[in-house]
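MODEL INPUT / OUTPUT PAIR
PAIR INDEX: 1
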Amino acid sequence: MTARLLAADRRLLDDRRGTRAMAWVMAIMLFLTVLAAAFGLATLGVAAVLDRQLAGRLTVQIATPAEHVRTREAAAALAALQRLPEVRRAVAVDPAHLADMLEPWLGADGADSDLPIPAMIDVDLTETSPATLARVRAAVRAAAPGARVDRQESWLAPVRSVMTMLTGMAGGLVLLMAGATAAVVILAARAGLDTHSDTIDVLHMLGSTDVQVARLFQRRIGLDTLIGGVIGMAVAFGVVMLVGAQLDALGSDLVAGLRLGVGDWVILACLPVAFALLATLAARLAVLAALRRVL
């Protein structure tokens, strides 16, 4: 009897065409999921790069029209900043460099001596607590009343918000694909029950329990999901690496943050296993629920 049970177990769900279809559906699902997850991890990496680069950075701007006043206040503000223990670095920006930065908008007039260019000081802080920022602002304004202190982080706050939104959207897509995978598995399990209802009846007559029958479905569906997931992941990895190579060729510091780290690749590699476990659980619950209704 045991041998006949094992033989019946092997024949159950031995639908090669259906198995191939299931594996390919899962390959497509995992391909899209890995791409969405890679995009989310990449945007999260860019946001982290921005946070590291801009955290604790200030810009002091002195836009007094009179050049001699502007020069005097810039020197006084720089000296005051360099005396503060909270300041790691304070450097005056070269006016020629500012003129070069303004040239795309002002043309050659950006270097005209009659056009007042604000004096600017780049500042790196050791910490970014509100009390520290308040002390730095107070020291700068005491030395240079016409100075304006801006946090560089605030300039790119809209960009940071967009990246946070994109990361959330990518996470939502991964969850949506997981839900769609569970739905496909449930439909496949129910279709398998209908297709092999006679075989299942024989198994029940031979003494098989609902849990044993469900184990057959969950094992086969889980294996199909894992095989299809590995295929989809491999193709997605190729696409991600191709896009990464194209982005590296741009040579942009911001785009460089889109590179995936080792931890990101590990997370992506775990997705087929996670989806296989999800499919196994969904198949088990769907089959047990269907068998309880039938019996």
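PAIR INDEX: 2
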Amino acid sequence: MPYLDAAAVGRLGTAAAVEALAGVLRAGLDPEACPQRSAVAVPGGELLLMPAASGAHAGVKIAGVAPGNAARGLPRITGSYLLLDGPTLRPLALLDGAALTALRTPAVSALAVRHLTPPGRPLRLVLFGTGPQAYGHLDALRTVRSLAQVVVAGRNPAGVDALVAHARATGLAARAGGAADVEGADLVVCCTTARAPLFDGRLVAPGATVVAVGSHEPDARETDTALVRRSAVYVESRAAALREAGDLLVPEAEGAIGPGHITGTLADLVCGRGPLPSGAAAASSADRGCPQLFKSVGMAWEDLAVAVAVYAAAGANSET
């Protein structure tokens, strides 16, 4: 059974990962039917078990979330992904689970951004976070939209400077900034471990898009109640969001919104079922009267879709 390491996973590329996710949704995969994540508290943090099956394949990710690893100079997210043949459940490959997560999470966000932002006009991006997901999101967003400017906001000045330098090295106009910069943003992306809101949601312009990916815990959030209340909210799955998305569950507990506040899902957008037009037909920001919020918690069907694409690409590469 082959082992597909971080380099092999990364060779797939974000654009191909985005298309893999879109493809399974267009083929009829229902994220609402995806098994829910299991979480087990352990001394070092948390172990997550994420199984999924679709079509010719099945798989399971075992991920570790170790908050103390940062002080040890180690990655916060660890793990492995076991890809199986669907009909026989015969193991096909073992993948680097952290690398898979680092690829699929930005790809999910990029797919949402492709459908929630107007094409053609370069976007002003405010990016919260300076870890691997921030780098991954910056690169992923460039595959679906042109970026006029990148403003990086983070707690660690050295980390902010490093990401700004990375962005500039790729040819982007970039600078350090803070929470107030969301007022002039077309796109705000949150990739942090924050447990409380990062910015004042009243500052976000009507028609701007906000993506929040940092947490799958019901009591942690990166966006505030003001933003959620005034936004059209999109999620990967209503069931998953109402179990795990603190960005939505905290405002609901406050009585500010109800379960019906969710406007639609990623599948609705990809398959053209959402209330907003998608792709090249998207309206301009000025035509939309409220912000768009995409809240991602990360789901097992996403890992499976991207793992299958990685496996297929690795097989093709081995034959050349």
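PAIR 2 NOTE: The radius of gyration is 19 Å.
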